[in-house]
Amino acid sequence: QVQLVESGGGLVQAGGSLRLSCAVSARTFSNYAMGWFRQAPGREREFVARISAGSNSLSYANSVKGRFTISRENAKNVGYLQMQSLRPEDTAVYYCAAGQFGSTFQTSYNYWGQGTQVTVSS
């Protein structure tokens, strides 16, 4: 069973930065693509960023492009989402996910974390 645990969320002022981490308990972590999604109150969960198993393919939502950076350390079984220039509209619960064919679509991910809250104050 693959488990994902997010950390690093919190309260930050607009313009600030946070780095989210996603610890994955899988011996074959390096075989999985990883994605980050978020869900704001009253809204559906949406794609934020994804990274391929070998880190050679990255994708970002237009709303975060240029501000967020996704990365991973396969040797440590950890994925990251570095968030800069945060805006109040980035406030949401952020989820990491892993899947063999992870894409921008949620259905391509088999495993999900419980989420971490990010709140950006104006």
Compact overview of the structure:
This protein has 122 residues and is an all-beta fold.
Helices and strands in order:
Layout: E1 3-7, E2 10-13, E3 18-25, E4 33-39, E5 46-51, E6 58-60, E7 68-73, E8 78-83, E9 92-99, E10 111-112, E11 116-121
Parallel strand pairs: 2-11
Antiparallel strand pairs: 1-3, 3-8, 4-5, 4-9, 5-6, 7-8, 9-10, 9-11
Short descriptors:
122 residues, mainly beta, seven-stranded mixed β-sheet, globular
What would your notes on this structure say?
This protein is mostly beta strands. Helices cover 0% and strands 50% of the residues. Strand 5 and strand 6 form a beta hairpin.
Number of strands: 11
Q: Count of DSSP helices?
A: 0
| End-to-end C-alpha gap | 40 Å
Q: What's the main sheet like?
A: 7 strands, mixed
Structural class: mainly beta
* Unreliable parts: none
Backbone shape = globular
Beta-strand content bin: over 45%
Topology pattern, helix = H, strand = E:
EEEEEEEEEEE
